[in-house]
Amino acid sequence: MATSRVPLVLLACGSFNPITNQHMRLFELARDHMHSTGQYQVVGGVVSPVSDGYGKQGLVLAKHRVAMAKLALRSSNWVTVDDWESRQPDWTETAVTMSKQHIIQWGGFSSAGNKAELGERLKQYNMEKSSRLCMENRRGNIDFATRKIAISLSQTKVVTQDGDKFDFKTLSTFRNYELAFTVGVEFDEHTKGLDNRNIKCLVTWEGDKLVCTQKGEKANRGWKHWIEGDKLYLELTCEDVVCVQVFKRKQ
């Protein structure tokens, strides 16, 4: 009788001074090995650089090591970078870092008030369906060639949450796009590679939905993200057009 595999997150702590191809290769080897046992299903990987308090000679500042790691892993659809350990004033034991990394939280986004207990949530979703209006809509000023390519693409979304801080990666074979924000804090976004606009954005909670209001050339523009069961929904609005994309969580 087949048994279900245990979900597993791979965590690598270290100086990453700097991160190298071999660091990233270790994740691939570890994932392959755990899968080969037939007991585990690797659902994510986390790189956790040490803080400046580690005291290693020649150690580059943590903020730079974190930035380099994020650049190195920006195309990965399952390994991400967590900066909690790097922000601590002193060196942190690996066991403490592991206890802090409540990585996998099955279920929806959480707007709970006790941010200290939320930990980071990492989820990966593959596109299940998309309204053709999402890319055929000319109101977004997306050029014809990009629309034709995008209609045929299968996208993957990788979402991480740390309290009210979110990072959304949209990955495809054509182009990757990353959006990082803090709920309740207005930020500037340049939709490079999409419709190439500079807009002001503000994301707020509406229950357990993330609602983004965008200010720019187009009226009534924004999006909503929410989770129901194992599906992630994205509703996009521009003027009088609304389209919906549905992503299913990768097991």
Counting copies of identical and different chains, the oligomeric state is single chain
CATH topology of the largest domain: Lipocalin
**What is the number of beta strands?**
13
CATH architecture of the largest domain: Beta Barrel
**SSE arrangement, N to C:** EHEHEHEHHEEEEEEEEE
Share of helical residues: 10-25%
CATH homologous superfamily classification of the largest domain: Calycin beta-barrel core domain
Most strands sheet = 10 strands, antiparallel
| Rounded average pLDDT | 80
Structural class assignment: alpha+beta
Percent range for β-strand residues: 35-45%
The geometry reads as globular
CATH class term of the largest domain: Mainly Beta
The total domain count is: 2
Uncertain runs: 102-107, 112-120, 135-140
The end-to-end distance, rounded to whole angstroms, is 19 Å
What can you tell me about this protein's structure?
The chain has 251 residues and is an alpha+beta fold. The protein folds into 2 domains: 6-107, Rossmann fold, CATH 3.40.50.620; 121-249, Lipocalin (Beta Barrel). Helices cover 19% and strands 39% of the residues. It has 5 helices and 13 strands. It has helices spanning 21-36, 62-72, 94-100, 133-136, 144-152; strands spanning 6-14, 40-49, 79-81, 120-130, 156-162, 165-171, 177-182, 187-190, 198-206, 209-215, 221-228, 231-238, 241-249. The protein has a 10-stranded antiparallel sheet with strand order 7-6-5-4-13-12-11-10-9-8, with no helix packed on it. Strands 1-2-3 form a 3-stranded parallel sheet, sandwiched between helices. Strand 11 (221-228) and strand 12 (231-238) form a beta hairpin. The protein starts with 5 loop residues before the first strand and ends with a strand.
